[in-house]
Amino acid sequence: MTANPARARKDEGFLGKLGGTLSRKKRSKEVSDLHEEGKNAINAPLLPSSADLLPEDMLLEDNAERSMLDPTSREDPKFKDLQKVLIDWINNELEEERIIVKDLEEDLYDGQVLQKLFEKLSGRKLNVAEVTQSEIGQKQKLQTVLEAVNELLRPQGWTIEWGVDSIHSKNLVAIVFLLVALAVHFMAPIRLPEHVSVQVVVVKKREGILQTSHVTKELTTTTEMMMGRFERDAFDTLLDHAPDKLSVVKTSLITFVNKHLNKLNLEVTELESQFADGVYLVLLMGLLEDYFVPLYNFYLTPESFEQKVHNVAFAFELMQDGGLKKPKARPEDVVNLNLKSTLRVLYNLFTNYKSAE
Asked: CA–CA separation, 185 vs 168, rounded Å?
């Protein structure tokens, strides 16, 4: 059978046209894809990645927003350390309640632990149901607890970075903000890590489009600044208005303490280090109040951090027994060689006992 040349040429022409059409469509698609890729590259910084978005983000009403902790901040060692310090503090405070907190997000969101913690710290009983399983009941309890907390903290100048919804939705940043504020206000016997900041991703919905931005949240500053929220004393004024006289103040304090410690053949040359274990503070209080402090009440040669803290805390108790106000400094700060805290304690003794012989 002989092929029809005309038919063959017709088929070749048809296939050629078809191939050309397919080729043009392919090139057109490539151009379109390249254009889309370029547009996406330009807009990428403005758009949230799919990994950052949660289903609830899609359900946001227009002009609404929500925030979440950036994953990199969650793994930050200083932020983890801050959480551990807060968890240990809560467990220590609520030991008698047999409450053990392991995770701030999972254990504090329903208000139960926060209620017990606030009651322990403030000595105030809140009128709330003890156990609440429903979401409504949990939020009602949180509302009562947070109203009491805010009533206490707002006059002290705290910015309220937490709320019922943020705590109940397990917003870790809000929970940590709240705990730091409580720890500072009630002068918790802990040392909060300084300069802890985290990145928060804020998702906003504008005209149906989700937009994200990163905001830095400062959870802690310096110990001195956080403690500075309390009533200022004469020592604060002295440091603020005459910092150049610090050496003069230190010399005066050394002269004052040695006037009394010399009676025991003891002498101080370095205020910062020689009072850090609490021994000289305890002995000094006995000399100023004219009594002998039994050696079994404190560690004469403390070795551990805990023993040193015990000594300084015991010296603070002796000060209060002598009619002085509770020192603003924490025992841990003195043990950690915080010069300003040590000077503040000694300056308080100086102003009250400078006439003592």
From this structure: 23
Task: Give the orientation angle of helix 246-261 with respect to helix 339-353, to 10 degrees.
Answer: 60
* Number of residues assigned to the chain: 357
Question: What integer pLDDT is reported at residue 175 of this predicted model?
Answer: 95
Residue environment code for 121-153, b if the CB has 16+ CB neighbours within 10 A, otherwise e? beeeebebeeebeeeeebbbbbebbbebbbebb
The answer to whether the pTM exceeds 0.70 is: no
Q: Which residue has the higher pLDDT, 326 or 108?
A: 108
- Measured CA to CA, the distance from residue 70 to residue 176 in angstroms comes to 15
Name the packing angle between helices 77-93 and 172-185 (round to 10°). 60
Residues 82-127: pLDDT tens digits? 999 999 999 988 988 888 999 999 999 998 999 999 998 888 888 8
Confidence of residue 239 (pLDDT cuts 50, 70, 90): low
261 vs 4, 265, 284, 287, CA distance in Å?
125, 7, 6, 8
Q: Is 280 exposed, middle or buried (0-12, 13-18, 19+ CB in 10 A)?
A: buried
Average pLDDT over residues 195-220: 85
One-letter amino acid for residue 68 of the chain: M
